[in-house]
Amino acid sequence: MARFRGVKIYYQTITEESSRNGDFDKTGEWDEISCDTVLEVMDVFQGYNSVEPSSSQFHKGIWYTTIDPEKDDAYYRKGVEKYYTLHLKGFDEEEERAVYRALFPTRANPVRKRNPVKTEKFYYYINQDERGEFYADIRDEKDHTIVEIDTEYAQFLSDEGVRLHDIRSVWAYFGALGDIPKNGVLLKGN
Question: Is the pLDDT of residue 82 over 90?
Answer without folding.
Answer: yes
